[in-house]
Design brief:
Elements: H1 8-30, H2 34-54, H3 61-80, H4 85-106, H5 113-134, H6 140-161, H7 169-192, H8 196-215
Helix pairs in contact: 1-2, 1-8, 2-3, 2-8, 3-4, 4-6, 5-6, 6-7, 7-8
């Protein structure tokens, strides 16, 4: 019988940190407890970087690229905390680069071109629908950054599809799509309809997706 590389001893400490920090973060955001956001959001981000390190991210090319993406996303989370336009642009840039490093990481694995074909239709459909919904609400000075960011997300989803058939693929594909879906909540909060409901589902989904991507290191 093969041993599951995702050992409980490696996963449990960062997973517990993630659950506690994300739960507290959502509660603080819902009740507008701003100091709590500055405490629990960094802790929730540290959890997914910590998980990647505990699973041996530095031991493989895949892990190193993915770890770089995780760290950039941690910085993206920190940049988004102040909630002003300059901070949002800084966070957008960090996440855009994080998506790119994830895409490069996925390309380190054997490529499955059938997986690319299968993922192309839903990825392009998501991009089209999101842009049709979002762009009328985006100010002129933000349209190019938003278009570029959406294109990079789509690229990441396509590269995730290329991992189909690999042991890490379920973690990669679920994590990549979860990350992309959570970005819809961020876009709605920033441009369309700010409110507590966006973070109630977007925040847990985002951090869960990052933990899934970090967990994929164990199988790559």
């Amino acid at each position: 019988m093969e041993t599951d590389p995702l050992s409980l001893s490696a996963v449990l400490p960062p997973a517990l940190l993630s659950v506690v920090a994300v739960t507290a973060l959502v509660a603080c955001d819902y009740r507008d407890i701003r100091p709590g956001r500055f405490i629990f959001k960094p802790l929730a981000a540290i959890a997914f970087v910590w998980l990647g390190l505990r699973l041996g991210a530095t031991d493989s090319s895949y892990g190193q690229w993915l770890l770089g993406g995780l760290v950039l996303c941690l910085f993206g989370d920190l940049f988004l905390m102040p909630e002003d336009e300059r901070s949002f642009l800084a966070g957008l840039g960090a996440f855009l680069c994080g998506h790119l490093l994830y895409a490069i990481a996925f390309l380190q694995l054997p490529l499955n071109w059938t997986g690319l074909v299968v993922s192309a239709v839903p990825a392009l459909l998501l991009m089209t629908l999101v842009l049709r919904w979002l762009m009328p609400h985006v100010d002129a000075n933000m349209k190019v950054p938003v278009l570029l960011y959406t294109a990079v997300i789509t690229l990441m989803l396509l590269c995730a599809g290329l991992s189909a058939g690999q042991a890490a693929a379920p973690w990669i594909i679920a994590g990549a799509w979860g990350f992309a879906a959570s970005d819809v909540a961020v876009a709605r909060q920033q441009f369309v309809a700010p409110g507590h409901s966006n973070r109630l589902w977007g925040t847990p989904l985002y951090f869960f997706a990052q933990m899934l991507l970090a967990a994929s290191i164990a199988y790559a």
